[in-house]
Structures are given as structure tokens and as C-alpha cells.
Amino acid sequence: MTTTSALSHYHDWLRDAHAMEKQAETMLEQMAKRLENYPQLRARIEQHIEETRQQQSLLESILDRHGISHSSVKDVMGKMAAMGQAFGGTFAEDEVVKGAISGYVFENAEIGSYTSLISAATRAGDQESVAILKQICEQEIAMADWMLTHMPELTDQFLLRSEDPDAKAKR
């Protein structure tokens, strides 16, 4: 049996997840635009941007099915936070490495969020959403795993480029 309080939290967390995906889309788009010398990372980020857009659509279908309005305030705040993160990184000499680390951390925050949402959906008896949330969580796990696996290679590429006075290492 689901309490009104548990259902209310579940609905709030669904809104939060939607805003989080909006933030992720903005952050990833800004990062991909600036990656000139790291084609493998850029390609994986572009793939994840498409996954993120699909995730937003899936979340919107859950919100709509439950009659939950999207939180445009949370969406806007998330996008503003992502723009701030992206803008701040443009001045860092080691932007690509710091961006990859931040991306890895963000992916893990998403994994935590979806793990909680799966439990909340189960408690709410929303089995249809459980399957969707698990699918999204698996995509976030795959992205986090990819980032972690490729972090040493990316770091090595950056360090090699930074030793060349004629190369632009940060992007």
C-alpha cells in the first residue's frame, strides 16, 4: 500500500529526474561543442546526448501518465546550473580532463537518482515505470563505465598534447 506521502515524494523525484536530464543535455551539448581534439570522447558524448533526449521523452510519458506537471522552474534552474558549469570550464587549461571527471560524477548522481526512483515506483505499484526507469539507469551506468574506462587514455592524450607548445590540449 502506498501512502500519500510516498506517492508525493515519488512524483517530486520524477520531476527532479526530468530536470536533471535537461541539465545533462545542456551540459553535454556544451562539452561536445568544445571537443576538437578528442573525437572518441566527443562521439560518446553525442551518443549520450541522444540517449538523454530519449530519457526526457520517457520521463515525460511517465509524468503525463500520472497527471504530473513538468516543473519548468526546476528545468530552467537545471539548465542554468549546466550553463554555469560549462562556462566555468572554458577557462580551465585542463578543461577536457575536468569535464570528463565532472561528467563521471554527474552520471553517478543520475544512477543514484534512478536507483531511488525504481524503489519508489515499485512501492507506488507503478510497474510500467519500473521497466522504463531501469532502462534509463542502465544507460547511465553504461556511460559512467565508459567514462571511467576511458579516463586514463583521455588523461594521457591531454598530457601528451599539453607538452606540445603548438597543440591546443584543453579541447
TrEMBL record:
Signal peptide: none annotated. InterPro entries: DUF892_YciF-like, Ferritin-like, Ferritin-like_SF. This is Ferritin-like domain-containing protein.
